[in-house]
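Reopening this one. Same input as before:
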Amino acid sequence: MLAFERVSWSVGGQPVLGGVDLCIGRGELVVLIGASGVGKSSVLRLAAGLLEPTGGHVARRARRCAMVFQDPRLLPWESALDNVGLPLEAHGVVRADARVRAGRWLARLGFRAEDLAKRPGQLSGGMKARVAVARAFVVEPDLVLLDEPFAALDLGLRRDMQALTRSLVVETGVAALFVTHDLTEAVRLADRILVLAGRPARITAAIGQRPVAAWADIWQAAAAFARRPDIAPVLAGLTELSPHAG
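Same output, byte for byte:
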């Protein structure tokens, strides 16, 4: 669904990315980790076509691409239902049908009927996150890009949203690229973990794994991951490993 071939990108004449290679197939959830400011969000914007590479090539075979941001970016004057239905209307679906499909997705993500009409200002942080995820999946995308979407949530909500995201990728078969700086989140979600490091940045490690479900195993896997010699140079700026990490 997505492939980077020796992709570079510069801003203001300063190289940010240099020779990035990656490939993501259908049904695969790939997590990209790296220190703050290394260029993870730039990779997502290049993947979405919001930026053009300075060099190399980005190949997208996805019919539809959707994004989930750290800030849910909901329209404050629209209901939860209509925020989810908006991209369907943008694709030509009539409003009534868009609302039916949006309602099904919100119900699937745990919304009660009485919550559908609430505006973002009336929703909790967890509910806003669910609206943002529903808005991405309602268009039946082939590729979903997630930019630290749960970083602002507390621990319990983060765990819920991580489990939900993993299950949606498996059920729908989308290709997903998930950016985080949290090692525990990475080992819980990823089929493959990519490490972005350096200046200009490139993929310095690519580690296949089985997503870990039990939290005792998650801490152990994250700690083992952190001890790898190819990971140690990029740990600065990543979330510390502790029972309180998301």
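So the earlier flakiness isn't reproducible anymore. For the record, The domain at 1-64+143-152+164-246 is CATH 3.40.50.300 (Rossmann fold).
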